[in-house]
Amino acid sequence: MIFLRYILYPIVPIYYLVTWLRNKLYDLGIKKSISHKTPVICVGNLSVGGTGKTPMIEYLIHLLKEDYLVATLSRGYKRKTKGFQLANKDATAESIGDEPFQFYNKFKKNILVAVDGDRNNGIKQLQLIDNLPEVILLDDAFQHRKVKAGFNILLTTYSNPYFKDIVLPTGNLREPRSGSKRANIIMVTKCPKDLSDAEKNTILQKINPETNQHVFFSSISYSNSVISSNTNKPIDDLNDFTLVTGIANAFPLVSFLKEKGLKFDHLNFKDHHEFSEQDILELNKRDLIVTTEKDFMRLKQYKSLRDKLFYLPISIVINDEVKINKLIIDFLMHNAGL
Fold first, then answer.
1. Tell me: the pLDDT tens digits for 141-159?
2. Chosen CATH of 2-68+134-220+318-336 out of 3.30.1050, 1.10.10, 3.40.50, 3.30.70
3. Per the annotation, does 322 bind a ligand?
4. Where is ATP bound in this sequence (predicted)?
5. Is 51 labelled a binding residue?
6. What per-residue string of b and e applies to 230-243 under the rule 16 or more CB within 10 Å gives b?
């Protein structure tokens, strides 16, 4: 795969030019971005792969749900439905996608969860319902420029920041690095917890933010317990289990579990893996399974796994929560006229 990417290097300038031109047409107003009355906060990235969008969306939900009626809007990647879908009691990972289903399971009493490949249509549909949302969180929509979000949060990982990368197909960037200038906040995710001020300053210099941009650093925080459909178990009590992951980058999770001195084998699937009957038969042979919350949303439907399937919750810790919270609340106060 890596060799193929290098063979395709001559296509990089073409991809760069096409995506740069597309952005320029939007910047000049030749292609139209639509603004909406409801405040819209977009969380996205420049690169393919996992940068921590789901934990960031959940951070925003926790921040806002007590004071605002929050809606999340995703495309519902790999769902088996079409068009606009508003999550309800009959929702599944197959009907709305695993990440939106995770949001719905965790926050359904407090928020609205919707999916639509056409984000403008999704926003319009949300604005038609009786329970009108007061803020809409767009998940993975930084390149969806048909919507003019009022506030953009751009995520990039510490281990593979966008300023060291190039565009597809040889690199991982969906668009040129210059796209980062559209962000209000740039969040460097999955940082070591002991990241020094000197290294932060080095990264800041390489990002070289605009005067109106704010850069933050976040790290992953793992729970002390794993959770099943009916019980919790302290993580230190785990013995000889199977780790199942279907995420873009399982390395931080694997490293955490190894640092805990836990004994496990690892079944590593591709991101958003659709578990087959053969996969489930294999998992039925295992005595104890630990997985990610996203994968749990797809696996918990199998009754044969229910008593031995656990997930490890994660959250993010941001270096200056007071400042980022203020920036977000100020945006909403200004745009909602509250």
1. 999 999 999 999 999 999 9
2. 3.40.50
3. no
4. 47-54
5. yes
6. eeeeebeebeebbb
